[in-house]
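Our preliminary data section would be incomplete without showing what the modeling component actually yields. Below, a chain of 186 amino acids is followed by its predicted structure, encoded as tokens that our downstream tools consume directly.
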Amino acid sequence: MIGKKNVVFGFLMLVVTAALGPYMAVKYVPGVDEARAVKQEKVGRLQQLQENNFEEDLQALPTDAVAKANTAGILALNLLYNAQAPIDAIKSGPHAHGNLEALLNIAAGIALCFIAVAPLFKQIISWLFILGAVLHSGVLYLVVALDQYWVLPIMKLGIGPVLVLAALLSIGVAAFVGFKGEPVKD
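Predicted structure:
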């Protein structure tokens, strides 16, 4: 059964991409929580000053003190943004694409069981899905989640997404030509 490797690969890839959740929680969430607390303190001070018409102890606050409070608030917002950025990059990159490409491999593997075309064509489709996932979300995983920038040239080639699209087109053609609706022998 040619699609078996895609099903197995897909489930294993789901495990790897699902592991990004706990990884993000352990590595990045504490920093986000700290940055959020700093932001709340600094922006809360600005809000309090604004509500008091920029007065403290019934006296107008000097402009340099207001500027310093504004600067502290802006820097606290930037700190929060920078702390959240790695989580956003992981969620929108390797986590989302990895889950999608894992499910695509599972679906393709199951679909290949019902398609009667030349075994070589089925093998090509099968490997296109696996290689596309590895060279797209796998490389994203290494670069974005694990800071392994040595694979950046592979990512910049864009071959992974092209392989995934080629796999989708190929399985569409194969299904059009040879979908049987029941398991076929390879």
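Strands lie at 55-56, 59-60. The mean pLDDT is 95. Preliminary results of this kind motivate Aim 1 of the renewal.
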